[in-house]
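As a next step, the fold was encoded as tokens, giving this record:
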Amino acid sequence: MVYTLRFFSVQNAVCFIILTYLVPVLFTFYIQGVLKLKKIFLTYMVPVLFTFYIQDVLKLKKIILTYLVPVLFTFYIQGVLKLKKIILTYLVPVLFTFYIQSVLKLKN
């Protein structure tokens, strides 16, 4: 019985020492490691990642300006020409007819 009490008291003393001294020291080393890692990440990795991001954006912009914009502009111009053809073919004669009829009514 005495041995078990002594064992528990030694165990309690070891736990007390670990919790009061060792854990704060290890936590301090952990925090220092995190801060060092953060500094390394912000110093070296962020500029590299940002450079890759900018390069991707510039590649995408080049692709859009090289291939997509001319195609879209071509479709736009074709649409404008079709609309112009429709207006000249169908709408202008109708409007001209109404105009002539109104002028003739005014003269009579």
Helices lie at 2-107. The CA atoms of residues 6 and 12 lie 10 Å apart. Residues 2-107 form the longest helix (106 residues). The mean pLDDT is 85.
